[in-house]
Design brief:
By secondary structure, the chain is an alpha+beta fold. It folds into 5 domains: about 1-100, Recoverin, domain 1 (Orthogonal Bundle), CATH 1.10.238; about 115-270, Glutaredoxin, CATH 3.40.30.10; about 300-395, no CATH class; about 410-535, Jelly Rolls; about 540-670, Jelly Rolls (Sandwich). About 20% of the residues lie in helices and about 25% in strands. The chain has 14 helices and 30 strands. Strands 12, 15, 18, 19, 22, 23, 25, 28 and 30 form a 9-stranded mixed β-sheet that branches. α13 packs antiparallel against α14 (about 370-380). About 35% of the residues are buried.
C-alpha cells in the first residue's frame, strides 16, 4: 500500500514535466493538479521527488511558482535535454488523483486563538515531575517572566526532529527570564524512553510525565509537538506549533514561520503576538474527554479583563482611538451598558465578514470577532453582579507605544505645512505632494499614517509617483493605492520577504478627506516608513475593481450594483478592503475561475462606513489568469438609513461623503525578478 502510494505521488510529480514546446496550457493543468491546497505554489510535499523540487525552486525559498517551473523546463528544452515522459493513461490517472484526493501532508494551520483557549487563565495545577518532586504553577512562576510548556513524545518522530530546536529555545528562554516545562503526554512511554529523549537533545528543564492527563485536559492539548506559552499571570498567550519546518509528510531545510519565537518576542514587549494559535502537526493525543482551560466562576480579574485586553483595549485606552477607556474595572462598570449594547448588536469588536461555515476555521488572519465562549462570558458577567475577583488573578498589563504604533519609523514623510480644517460644513479633498530624497530604490515592509489631529481625518489615500512622472489628482483612488488610512486601518506590516517599492527620487502624494467636527483645527499628518532589511522575494501591489457608473435611485432601500472584471494574470491575493460611503449596506467579492462555478471570496453582510477594515488572508489565495472577479454592493438610499445625507436625490459616484463610491481593493504579490 505504502509503495503504491509513493509511486503514485512520484507519478503525479512527473506529470508536471510532461510537456513539450507549445504545451504551456498543459503545464498549467498539471501544476494545478499538483497544487493540492490551491495556493499557486508547490512545496516539496506536493512535488516529492527532491531532485526535481531542488531544480525547480530556483530562488531557494522553499516553494515553486508556476513561473519558476516554466522557466526551468523551457531552458531544459532549449538545451535539448530530455524530459521524463509517461503514457497518457498514467498522466490522466495521476492528475485526477491529485485533484480529488485530500492532501497527505499536514502543515501548521493558523487558528483563531480565542476559540482554542488563548487569552484564558490556566488553573493553578499542582503536578509531580519525573523526579517525583512537587511543582505548582503559581509558585514556580513567581520569579519568572513566563512559562513555556513544550510537549514531546519520546518515540514520536516529529518530536525527535524538533528536539534540537527545543534545546535552542530552552537556552534562549533562560536569557529572557522564562522557564520551560517539558511535558510527555503519552502514558505508555517509559521513564527510560523519556530520559533517553532528554539526554539525546541535551535538555535540562523539569519534565512532567502527564500519565493521568490532568495537564493535557486543562490545556485541551492535541498533539505531542504542541507548545504553550503562558505569562507570569498564567494567561495563555500562544499555543500551537514551534515552527513550520516539520510536519506530517514533509520536511523543510529551515523554517519559514517561527511561531513560538515570534510570540516570545511579543510577550517581552508586553504585547500580544500577531498569530496566537496554530495546529501542531505531530502524533495525535487520545484524551479521555475535552475540558475547557477556564475556571467556572467568572470575575473581572480572572477572565473578563483578559477578554478586554485581547479584543478591546488596543483602541479603548488612554490616548487610544476609542471614545472611552476600558483599562480598569471602574472604566468597565462606567461603560457597562454601552459595552453590552454594542456586543449584543455585533458592532464591537469591529469585524464584519460573515462567519465561516460551522467547524471551519476563519480564513482571516486579523479576525477580531469574539469567540462564542468569550461573547457568552462577557455578556453573562455584565448581566450578573459583576464580581471583581482577586487582583492577584489579574493578567499582566499590556504596554502600548505612546506615538507610533509600530515603533519609530526608519523614515518619515510629512506634509510640508499644516492644513487648516474649518469648524463646520464640508471640505473638498486636499491633495498634497511631498518629494523624497532617497538616492536609491527603497523597499518598504510596513507603514503608519499618523495625523496630528486624528479627530478630523476620515481617510487618506497615498500614492507613489516615479521621479519625473506627471502627477495628477485623480480624486477617487479607484486605481488602487500605495498606502491608506481609513477607519480601522492606520498602519500595516507585511510578512518577512514581502515589501512595496519606493523608487529613488519618488514623489509621495496624499489625498486627504477632512471632516470638520465643530472646532477649528489644523493637521499636518506624517507617513512613517519601515524598510525591509534586504531585497524582498515578493513585491506587494494593490489593484481595484471599481464601479464609477453608480446610479442609486432616490428612496431605494436595497439597490444592487455589480461590477465584473477579468483577471489579466495569475494573482496571489493577500487581502481585500471594501470602500463605500454612507449609503453602503453590504459588499461581496466573488470569483469565477475558468470552467468553474462562482465562489465567494469575502462576504460583508453588514458594511459600516465608520470601520473600513482590511481582511487579511491567513494564507494567500491563488486566482488564475482568465478568472473573473465580481464585486456586488447593496446601497440604502432610503429614509430608513439614518446616516443618509439626502434620500430625495439620485446618487452617483463622487468624492465627497454625500456622494457614493464602490471600490473593491485587492492586495496581491508577484515574484521579485529584479524589479
Amino acid at each position: 500500500m505504502i509503495r503504491s502510494l509513493i509511486l503514485l505521488l512520484i507519478t503525479a510529480s512527473l506529470t508536471l514535466l510532461y510537456f513539450t514546446r507549445g504545451q504551456s496550457a498543459d503545464l498549467d493543468q498539471r501544476f494545478k493538479a499538483l497544487d493540492r491546497n490551491n495556493d499557486g505554489l508547490l512545496t516539496e510535499a506536493e512535488l516529492p521527488r527532491r531532485q526535481w523540487f531542488e531544480r525547480l525552486d530556483t530562488n531557494k525559498d522553499g516553494q515553486v511558482t508556476r513561473e519558476e517551473a516554466r522557466k526551468v523546463v523551457a531552458a531544459m528544452l532549449k538545451r535539448g535535454e530530455s524530459l521524463p515522459r509517461l503514457p497518457s493513461e498514467e498522466v490522466t490517472a495521476a492528475s485526477t488523483h491529485a485533484v480529488i484526493e485530500p492532501a497527505l501532508t499536514e502543515v501548521p494551520a493558523v487558528l483563531k486563538g480565542s476559540e482554542v483557549g488563548v487569552g484564558r487563565r490556566l488553573p493553578d495545577l499542582e503536578l509531580t515531575d519525573l523526579k517525583q518532586q512537587s511543582l505548582k504553577l503559581s509558585r514556580d512562576l513567581k520569579e519568572a517572566q513566563g512559562l513555556i510548556m513544550a510537549y514531546f513524545g519520546a518515540t514520536c518522530p516529529i518530536s525527535g526532529k524538533l528536539g534540537p530546536e527545543i534545546a535552542r529555545i530552552e537556552k534562549e528562554a533562560v536569557k529572557q527570564g522564562l522557564k520551560m516545562l517539558l511535558v510527555c503526554p503519552v502514558a505508555a512511554e517509559t521513564t527510560d524512553d523519556i530520559e533517553t529523549f532528554i539526554k539525546t537533545h541535551g535538555l535540562t528543564s523539569r519534565v512532567i510525565h502527564d500519565q493521568d492527563q490532568r495537564l493535557s485536559l486543562a490545556l485541551s492539548a492535541t498533539t505531542t509537538t504542541e507548545v504553550f506559552l503562558l505569562d507570569a499571570a498564567r494567561t495563555l498567550i500562544y499555543r500551537g506549533a514551534i515552527n513550520d519546518q516539520y510536519g506530517l509528510g514533509y520536511s523543510k531545510p529551515a523554517p519559514t514561520k517561527t511561531y513560538l519565537r515570534d510570540a516570545m518576542k511579543a510577550m517581552q514587549r508586553s504585547q500580544l503576538p500577531e498569530i496566537t494559535a496554530t495546529t501542531a502537526p505531530g502524533c495525535a493525543l487520545d484524551l479521555k474527554t475535552e475540558v475547557a482551560a477556564v475556571e467556572t466562576k467568572l470575575s473581572y480579574h480572572d477572565q473578563i479583563q483578559r477578554i478586554l485586553q485581547a479584543r478591546c483595549v488596543e483602541c479603548h485606552r488612554a490616548d487610544g482611538v476609542g471614545p472611552f477607556s476600558l483599562e480598569t474595572y471602574d472604566d468597565v462598570i462606567e461603560n457597562a451598558a454601552m459595552i453590552r449594547k454594542q456586543v449584543e448588536r455585533g458592532v464591537m469588536p469591529p469585524w464584519f465578514a460573515a462567519a465561516p461555515p460551522k467547524d471551519e476555521h476563519s480564513p482571516w488572519l486579523n479576525d477580531a470577532s469574539l469567540s462564542p465562549q468569550d461573547k457568552n462570558d462577557l455578556l453573562t458577567w455584565l448581566a450578573s453582579d459583576r464580581a471583581k475577583g482577586d487582583p492577584a488573578d489579574a493578567p499582566r498589563p499590556l504596554v502600548f507605544p505612546k506615538e507610533w504604533t509600530m515603533g519609530q519609523p526608519d523614515a518619515i514623510v510629512q506634509l510640508p505645512k499644516a492644513v487648516s480644517v474649518k469648524a463646520e460644513g464640508t471640505m473638498p479633498y486636499q491633495f498634497v505632494t511631498v518629494p523624497t530624497e532617497f538616492e536609491e530604490d527603497r523597499w518598504v515592509r510596513g507603514y503608519e499614517i499618523l495625523p496630528t489631529d486624528a479627530s478630523v481625518v476620515h481617510h487618506v489615500i497615498v500614492q507613489v509617483h516615479a521621479k519625473g512622472a506627471k502627477i495628477r489628482n485623480r480624486g477617487e483612488g479607484a486605481e488602487g493605492y500605495w498606502a491608506a488610512y481609513v477607519p480601522g486601518n492606520t498602519h500595516h506590516l507585511w510578512p518577512e520577504h514581502f515589501a512595496k517599492k519606493l523608487p529613488a527620487g519618488a514623489t509621495v502624494s496624499f489625498q486627504i478627506h477632512y471632516t470638520p467636527n465643530g472646532k477649528q483645527t489644523q493637521d499636518q499628518l506624517r507617513l512613517g516608513l519601515h524598510f525591509a532589511d534586504e531585497t524582498p522575494r515578493y513585491i506587494v501591489h494593490t489593484a481595484s475593481v471599481a464601479n464609477p457608473r453608480l446610479n442609486i435611485p432616490a428612496g431605494a432601500s436595497d439597490h444592487l450594483e455589480t461590477k465584473e472584471q477579468a483577471v489579466p494574470f495569475d494573482m496571489h491575493v493577500m487581502a481585500y478592503m471594501a470602500h463605500m460611503h454612507l449609503r453602503g449596506k453590504a459588499f461581496k467579492y466573488e470569483v469565477t475561475r475558468p470552467g468553474q462555478s462562482p465562489e465567494i471570496l469575502l462576504n460583508i453582510p453588514r458594511y459600516d462606513f465608520n470601520w473600513q477594515l482590511r481582511y487579511d488572508y491567513v494564507q494567500p489565495r491563488f486566482i488564475p489568469k482568465g478568472s473573473k472577479v465580481k464585486i456586488s454592493a447593496l446601497f440604502d438610499n432610503s429614509l430608513g438609513n439614518p446616516a443618509n445625507p439626502d434620500p430625495t436625490r439620485n446618487v452617483r459616484w463622487g468624492p465627497q461623503t454625500e456622494d457614493e463610491m464602490m471600490i473593491g481593493y485587492v492586495e496581491y504579490y508577484t515574484a521579485n525578478n529584479g524589479g
